[in-house]
Design a protein that fits this description.
Layout lengths: L14 H16 L2 H14 L4 H20 L19 H10 L1 H34 L4
Length: 138
């Protein structure tokens, strides 16, 4: 429910209306986005009893597509090609993080935070192992 008015898709529909709505949504989902937007107005005019739920479902479809485009997973487990590698200098990461945390997240996102966290977690153990290996034993 939105602030003030219920969503049309929350209103009860008859089985026949649900079937028609499903067919209309399927028709819109199969068309390219710019064609589907034009077709939406025609379908809403032709089916005034389903106009509001159709518009709301169409908006939801557009948002879902936009999120899916930004997803790292494409089809059935296929991953997008990795982005261009970015060299991350730990000194730069630490400096940017301490000076302006907002800029840090803007530039490095969670990858930078994960890298800094991994460094903090791994380095004490690595230092201990190196010390044990490199110090002479008496």
């Amino acid at each position: 429910m939105t602030a003030g008015r219920p969503l049309a898709v929350e209103s009860p529909l008859s089985p026949a209306q649900e079937e028609r709505l499903a067919e209309l949504v399927e028709e819109l989902s199969e068309a390219p986005a710019h064609v589907a937007q034009q077709r939406l107005a025609t379908l809403a005019a032709a089916h005034p009893d389903l106009a509001e739920p159709l518009r709301e479902l169409f908006a939801t479809m557009l948002v879902t597509e936009a999120v899916a485009e930004q997803s790292t997973v494409l089809d059935a487990g296929t991953l997008r090609p990795p982005a261009e590698p970015v060299a991350i200098d730990l000194a730069t990461v630490a400096r940017v993080f301490t000076e302006t945390p907002g800029l840090f997240f803007e530039r490095f996102g969670l990858a930078g935070l994960h890298a800094a966290l991994a460094w903090v977690v791994v380095m004490p153990g690595l230092a201990w192992v190196l010390r044990r290996l490199l110090l002479p034993t008496f």
